[in-house]
Amino acid sequence: MAHHTIQTPITKLLGIKHPIILAGMNQASGPELAAAVSNAGGMGVVGGHNYTPEFLKEMLDDLKAGLTDKSLPFGVDLLLPKVGEGARATNYDYTKGKLDALVDVVIESGAKLFVSAVGVPTQATIAKLHAADILVMNMVGAPKHVSKALDAGVDIICAQGGEGGGHTGDVPTSVLIPVVADLCRGRISPLTKEPVLVVAAGGIFDGRGLAMALSLGASAVWVGTRFLASLEADAPQVHKEGVLGCGYHDTLRTLVFTG
């Protein structure tokens, strides 16, 4: 029986079978889950905050050890909020001054994708990643954030609507995706020399959500919460049970860590 796949510019760019990227969810998106998603034809991503270069290297070594094909792509997702002058007072340097060393680990690991979940990487950081042939994706939760990310030189914009369990804003997914797609139109990736691509996120959990995202201008989806209850997810059992038993009005949004 033939297995049909959906091919998009993202699947071709990343070398994956399905336009599905695992969201970096700190502990939950550990090496085992990331490897499982890559093995299944999507793209596994590990991500989090306060990682030391040594810990990140250990995670990526474990991820690569779990790949059934060592050529399968994977990514790394870090929090890089602006700090210092002009930044929100609550912002914090989650790399603790180790960003360059963390980027070195990402490069040495052979990662295909680097993601900034919060904040825009500096042009120097993006240039360093591009020199190693690593794509850079930036998360945005509002249209106003798109131009800064594009001007910095990112290759992919991930539009995460307010339904998302991660770092998001108030704009609904169905509204944000087409607006971001329009804002990216005509912009070129410095690395690929092809159009900047859009990934959609925020409350996407099945094929209907994927179809919606593609129809609104995205080339792939960034999915996190849907994977939380999987056996491979390194979330505490109480967290998994909470997600499975959660009602429509049981979610709250807090600062940074859960949204």
UniProtKB/TrEMBL annotation:
Entry superkingdom: Eukaryota
Gene Ontology terms for molecular function: nitronate monooxygenase activity
Keywords, alphabetical: Flavoprotein, FMN, Oxidoreductase
Alphabetical list of Gene3D superfamilies matching this protein: Aldolase class I (3.20.20.70)
Keyword Iron applies: no
InterPro entries, A to Z: Aldolase_TIM (IPR013785), NMO (IPR004136)
Protein name: Nitronate monooxygenase domain-containing protein
Highest classification ranks of the organism: Eukaryota, Haptista, Haptophyta, Prymnesiophyceae, Phaeocystales
